[in-house]
């Protein structure tokens, strides 16, 4: 087991960075901000606030969150005793640490497959199960069978099932009154903070556009897909938590966009069916993929067109990438603004799912 962890970590380090999801740093912060916003909301039940306060550990306000975002360095191995942020990173730790043959039951698949859903696999025509820049291989909600035994899930990923499962486990834990860690019981005990953290993780992965496509590194925008830059890593962690550069300028540009999206953005999902909701989030996020691809081409000076890249790619310029403009949700915006919208949406999804679980466990009618 130990050997396996070291091997996995070795591989992860060799590849520079694992392509899991938003960075550990972001997963910690999304869970924390969701809890802080619920605590600040007069409509949140007082007992829920109390539980969230315990999960938070050290309380922070949004100004402290900004400082933390600007200056904190987390990396691949999380160092914290704050329960909620810790558990929100655990699913990615399991991707690294779990034996490759270990299966998450009842899904019968490795933890790695819990974090995404590659929507193209649900195109009826099997020849069209690949990403295309014009989004012509994007299925509709009705194309996804709510049946985990359908063979396509094994390749597409189990995110819609995993989100629903974590939500149900959270409801059960709250009903059973198992609200937080029992000292000395890790990892045997089940409790609401653990499942709230897991749920926060997967709900946040859901808004990363590249977690909705088989072309998860946007490599179809490059002449040589195998040697293409790791656009997935650029999208997720580079600006927030890089080994080599703090990107203070990009972080300072990003934060006001994120706060604005938190204040103004809406969760457009209406359904309460979490399987369907997860797919809707993936399909909406999917529409950001063309702008990510074009921006990646610009950042790496890749010649040709999105449909037909030509010539060699150069070194990737993260600043050019995040400042590139494209169209998303019917208007022009930079990749950075799109990231702000998607990550603020993640925070809102987390709040909504936690609150729904709390209400369901207490058989309380939502306001
Ligand atoms: Zn993940």
UniProtKB/TrEMBL annotation:
SUPFAM superfamilies tied to this protein: Phospholipase C/P1 nuclease (SSF48537)
Keywords: Signal
Signal peptide: 1-21
Gene Ontology MF terms in the entry: hydrolase activity, acting on ester bonds
Database matches in Gene3D superfamilies: P1 Nuclease
This protein's record includes keyword Signal: yes
Protein's UniProt name: S1/P1 Nuclease
Species, as recorded: Humisphaera borealis
